[in-house]
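ok so I'm stuck.
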Amino acid sequence: MGDYLDFLEEYCDFYDGLVQLEDEKMRIIVDNKPLLLEGVIKREEAAVMRAQGLENKRQELQAAWGAPDKTLQEIIDSLEGEEALRARRLSRRLRGAVETLRVMNQTSADVLVGRLKQIEGIIRELGEHAGRERSLMNRSI
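replied:
not stuck anymore, here's the structure
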């Protein structure tokens, strides 16, 4: 079981890194620096692949431990002593990181939608302005 708990520690570290990456993305969006966004998105894509690898590793460890279909909570409930305490701590840490990511991701999406609406408004204004100029030119000819 020690290997599984060590893995959970690695899993938590991974999600903590995702929180930092999402924070960086949010700052780029809020600071309106779209050229920097591409680099963060590439790192996110790499993280998604890493997450798939970690999920496969988790499934392998659970299968080796004889609990392939159990949830983390079910595994925690089957533990005792120091292992149970460590598993509960890691579970709380993991849930916290996942919830933080969810909130940050939604906030980033909301800010991006706001930015897109601003851009649409500017484009609309430019189009209306260009139309007025053409209209004036047609009258003067």
